[in-house]
Amino acid sequence: MSNKILVYIETLEGLPAEHSLELLGKAGDLAKKAGLDVGAILVGYEVKSIAQELIYRGASEVHVVDDPRLGSYNLLPYTSAVVDVIKKTEPEIVLFSATVIGRELAPRVAARLKTGITADCTDVDIGDWVDPGTGRKYEKILYQIRPTFGGEIMAAIVTPQRRPQMATVRPGLFPIPPRDESRTGKVVEWSVNIPESEQSLVEVIEVKREKRKVDLKSARVIVSGGRGCGAKGFELLRELASVLNGEIGASRAAVDAGWIPYDHQIGLTGQTVKPDVYIAVGISGAVQHVVGMKDSKIVIAINKDPEAPIFRIADYGIVGDLFVVVPKLTERLKKKS
Questions:
Q1: CATH number of the domain that 94 lies in?
Q2: Element of type H or E holding 11
Q3: Domain holding 324: CATH number?
Q4: Sheet holding 123-130, edge to edge
Q5: Looking at the 3D structure of the chain, how many domains does it have?
Q6: Which pLDDT belongs to residue 149?
Q7: Are residues 102 and 242 in the same domain?
Q8: pLDDT tens digits, 218-228
Q9: CA 114, CA 313: separation in Å to the nearest integer?
Q10: Mind giving me the DSSP string for 60-83?
Q11: DSSP labels for 298-316?
Q12: Whole-number mean pLDDT of the chain?
């Protein structure tokens, strides 16, 4: 195997997607820790011009498949292209963003390579691992970290005997690496084998891009409600968010109850956010939710249960009935504004 971590790069309107750049930066951190090189896989048509930007953002090598047959994302041809590059470069690790495309493409790539993959990781790390059964030590092992057993615990999954080690990683968890125009790197162009049958099996008629109605990732203040709020509680949260010029978030329980649309959901199956202030109201603090907001700068929890897990990660906690606390807080803030 080569001494590389490869990151699959998604593109959007002729530019590398932000979540792919985030993952490239994280791969750089892993590479420094384990003495590896960072490379990128770039697949599409007329995408070679993006390669230099990836070098500026941390890639030492960019492996480009620029082919008219790959003008629009199409699962089977893209799978063949990515698998071909991986077979030729033999990386230790391959990372994909856990987007709609990544969640579809990565498992198929792993199946063709006959290796393991962990989906929807909330973090990845690298280091040595000792098999508790045999005592054998493995080096440069990718720790693929994600909630399991219904989100009750965090599991670190390893793939000691198959290569490459593969994972999809949730977007929005890591900072985008700074642009450094002094960096140099190598661009490698590949011609790959794409079977004719795969090209004709699915035809892309039209591509439509829909933006989220609510983009919580750029919000500086988020007031988020959970199971304890009820529909009436969210009315109070909207007023508080308005005073703070913030946005409304929610736990999965609140969304499932129909109190607020899915676009507001934060957590493992929703958005990942990093606001300056996160106010969690009536949210117990289950792992599934916490992974989506744990990097907030300041967390304020309001809950009538003093044992709620959310208080363990909160910077400030208020034990009390939200129907009493939130109106008083809103009124106080109105007087200060």
A1: 3.40.50.620
A2: strand 11-12
A3: 3.40.50.1220
A4: 123-130, 137-148, 153-157
A5: 2
A6: 62
A7: no
A8: 899 999 999 98
A9: 40
A10: SEEEEEE-GGGSS--HHHHHHHHH
A11: EEEEEES-TT-THHHH-SE
A12: 90
Q: Say if residue 225 is in the same domain as residue 174.
A: no
Task: Please tell me whether residues 180 and 248 are part of one structural domain.
Answer: no
Cα 47–52–56 angle (5° rounding)?
135
208 belongs to a structural domain: no
- For residue range 39-62, list pLDDT tens digits in order: 999 999 999 999 999 999 999 999
12: left (phi over 0), alpha (psi -120 to 50) or beta: beta
- Helix (H, G, I), strand (E, B), or coil: what is residue 122? coil
Mean pLDDT of 119-145: 92
Q: CB of 260 within 8 A of CB of 280?
A: no
What is the rounded distance in angstroms from the CA atom of residue 292 to the CA atom of residue 2?
Answer: 34
Task: Look up the pTM and report it.
Answer: 0.78
Residues 261 and 187 placed together within one structural domain of the fold: no
Structure tokens at 7: 């990151």
Token look-up 């077979």 returns: 87
Q: Both 127 and 253 in a single domain?
A: no
Strands 298-303 and 316-319, by their bridges, are parallel
